[in-house]
Amino acid sequence: MCGIIGYVGGNPAVPRLINGLKKLEYRGYDSAGISFFTEVGVVTVKAEGRIANTEALLREKYPDAQSVCGLGHTRWATTGKPSDANAHPHRVGRVTLVHNGIIENYKTLKKECEAAGRVFRSQTDTEVIAALADIVYERRGDPVATLREVAARLEGSFAVTALFDDRENTVYGFRKDSPLIVAETGDGNYFASDYIAVKHLTDVYRFPAEGTVVEVTADGVRYYDREGEAAPPAPIRVTDVNRDDGKGAFPHFMLKEIFDVPDAIRNTCRDRVCEGRPAFDDETLQRLAAAGRIFIVACGTALNAGKLGKVYIEKFARIPVSCELASEFRYFPPLCGANDSFIFISQSGETADTVASMRMIKSQGLYTVALVNTPNSTIAREADGVLYTRAGTETAVASTKAYSAQSALLFLLALGLGMQKKTLTAETAAAFTKNLTKGVPAAIEKILADTEKIKAFSEKYCTAPSCFFLGRGPDFFLAEESSLKLKEISYIHCEAYAAGEIKHGTIALIEKDVPVIAIISGDKIRAKTISNAAEVKARDAKVLTVTDRLVPGEDETADDICVADCPCEELFHICAATFFQLFAYYTAVGRGRDVDKPRNLAKSVTVE
Ligand code: G6P
Questions:
Q1: Where in the sequence is the domain holding 48, given as residue range(s)?
Q2: Is there an atom of ligand 1 within 6 Å of 397 CB?
């Protein structure tokens, strides 16, 4: 988490650092700060809250800053609450630095630094790195040797950039398990935690290896490993980036991105359909089709899309699928064998737990497939096979169009696997492909054409401090995603329950006017979920049923019934997801929430 930017060149550093931070804000926005060289040495400006607070301070204190070298940071708080004091950069003695990641042994190191006379002003683990660097620098007098020694003492994950008072206009950096890139551009030389910060300047960057200390000046970039100066790492040329086209006339990115859903699905499927049928790269398809079991590993919304993927793959290709939380999987992997394959789903391609899970599986020689939205991301680069969703840049923290595109791609993949395994005829696959590529975007456009209705439902139902979603099978998986969407941006306490389970505890929470949203599709479990809706209605809950069609008599168990258009019951969940994305959006707007940047969250979670 958190964003890092560093700059040295022939141009003013301050606007470049601020611009870089704005591009990285999706990694965290609890506080921001920059440090830069001036005639009186290194100065720091930092503040809790959004970058605008730091900018205001800069205008007040350094309106004419001409510095050509500095570094900056936008923070998602891990160790130490969001505050001015805990904001980066941190300075101890002659060292000023910023850090992404977590230092697990910081308490031990802190005691050691205190014993050596260093005084701490923050609660962060980062300040310990600065203190340790100051102590080592006193002894060694060389920034590269100092940072190598410091890096060797740190446990955990880190990307660090640092300034040393007496090394004017030079930025140093090093990393372990946390990304940090170097870009030499016509505008100057940059460090960044993510290529996104420099993509307007170059399509080439380098990724320093762990154990390397990098020294960046206006004249060039030097890499030092244990042996001394080393050859630079190979350049990475970015051939494919998501277009970032702003939010246009929409009041929020989230609303714009919900309106992008039909195109996100069309663009994602366009790559993967040939003559009306799913068309996947041979090796990926064959390896997955041959698997004894497919494991889908992801976090958050991406995992919720994976759960729909399980339903599709098991139905069409008859391959057993297990869905795993990456944060659990990496430490408690289920038993798996050489015949199993693994799909890692991620919008960003950078989520720490998903990356670590993938590396763990790769290191065992097992086959990995990435299903990602961000070209050239870590997961895309390292997996054996890559399937891209083409949702475009997703900026709002709450994932919408990426989820819809992931679900659509998994549906198409399941059809492809079904054809490969001959569990599905080519004609059936073609019919479903048409429903997905034509029917689904059209159905979602119908949902988008009637946002007033959804807004009215949100006003009627989201009045209580908590809310429940019920469903069975794939309806439950959509309930989980809908509940997550609503809670993350509205801050209403939401729970999704497999409808049959509520009477084993949760029903105790149902009282008069508690909103319950029942999701019901298909025939198989229709009557069962209807009975569960009746059970909560009998206890005076306020019930909204969202379904694929109207069935006479079902209205007795709901206060309202809403039909979400869909071309067939198998595709109901991808269509209805947009209903719930809008439902969450309007609820959050109604409550005055910061919809695109909800509290405590970040778009890309690069710490465990
Ligand atoms: C964060 C985001 C979620 C996202 C999850 C996984 O929590 O706020 O929207 O679903 O990370 O992210 P990924 O980029 O791996 O899909």
A1: 3-237
A2: yes
